[in-house]
């Protein structure tokens, strides 16, 4: 197995236990558009916000710790926090047809490209 | 039995204090390979009044691809994370603009305390997060030891 992407917290919020992480992603291109996968463990459909504004796609996944009250951590290898990542979309992406699906903590976003217009011959008349 | 680090900082005195603390409580966890960097999956272990709780982030896993076994006080987590891209969509490498996620076989072993009820061990998997509940055995009631006089 190749090495996992390390989720390093890049911003600490007011609460000492809360972090915002940059989730690892895959992006690949097909003839129809771009496909984006993001690992968001702990995020559910109800706690995920996807927003497109001015060619910027932002995903915010909120994660609740889900650890019972009074639980005493005795061994800790990872922190729990929200996920935030933004992308600049190219002009050929059709914003109104973006599709997203969240399964087992993995988000798949399909960003369709507008079909290219067929070249049109322009009649040139002689003077 | 190897003792895991409590945090990244090396503080022998604090480790010793905590080790003594654990010995007093009769609880010892050790995670195989913990000294090796970037083990997959990362695990957190918590103690509650009646159980221990182990959590691991495993996004993209399916329940049927997860295997948990317990033998000789060692809990083994094993699995295979399939890449939907590589196996179903057959996308050539040059089509990728970013590739940060990981796939493949993984395995971790965790030594657990003797005071765990193996039969009542349970696990749940939601939103890519695995939680393993390890109930503690009922403590034996304190037993009075009669003291006779030397007469």
List the helices and strands and how they pair.
The complex is a heterodimer of chains A (127) and B (151).
Chain A lengths: L10 E2 L6 E3 L3 E5 L3 E7 L8 E6 L2 E6 L10 E5 L5 E7 L10 E5 L2 E7 L15
Chain B lengths: L11 H14 L4 E2 L11 E5 L3 E7 L8 E6 L2 E8 L2 H6 L6 E4 L4 E8 L10 E5 L2 E7 L16
Antiparallel strand pairs in B: 1-7, 2-3, 3-9, 4-5, 5-7, 8-9
Family (chain B): Belongs to the small heat shock protein (HSP20) family.
Pfam family, one (chain B): HSP20
Protein name (chain B): 18 kDa heat shock protein
Unreliable stretches covering 5 or more consecutive residues of chain B: 1-27, 32-37
Strand content of chain A: 35-45%
CATH fold type of the domain at 37-135 in chain B: Immunoglobulin-like
Number of strands of chain A: 10
Helical percent range of chain A?
A: under 10%
Into which percent range does the helicity of residues of chain B fall? 10-25%
Strand order of the largest sheet of chain B: 1-7-5-4
Distance between the termini of chain B: 47 Å
CATH class of the domain at 37-135 in chain B: Mainly Beta
Mean pLDDT of chain A: 84
Shape of chain A: rod-shaped
Biggest β-sheet: strands ordered side by side in the sheet of chain A: 1-2-8-6-5
Domain SHSP (chain A): 16-127
Pfam family, one (chain A): HSP20
Protein name (chain A): Spore protein SP21
Organism (chain A): Gimesia panareensis
Description:
Chain B: Belongs to the small heat shock protein (HSP20) family. Chain B: Pfam families: HSP20 (PF00011). The complex is a heterodimer of chains A (127) and B (151). In chain A, strand 9 and strand 10 form a beta hairpin. Chain A is mainly β and 127 residues long. Chain A has no helices and ten strands. Chain A has a five-stranded mixed beta sheet with strand order 1-2-8-6-5, with no helix packed on it. A four-stranded antiparallel beta sheet of chain A has the order 3-4-10-9, with no helix packed on it. Chain B has 151 residues and is mainly β. Chain B has a domain of 99 residues: Immunoglobulin-like, CATH 2.60.40.790. Chain B has two helices and nine strands; from the N terminus they run H-E-E-E-E-E-H-E-E-E-E. Chain B has a four-stranded antiparallel beta sheet with strand order 1-7-5-4, with no helix packed on it. Chain B has a four-stranded antiparallel beta sheet with strand order 2-3-9-8, with no helix packed on it. Chain B is rod-shaped and about 90 Å long. Chains A and B meet through strand 3, strand 4 and strand 7 of A and strand 2, strand 3, helix 2, strand 6 and strand 7 of B. Strand 3 of chain A pairs antiparallel with strand 6 of chain B.
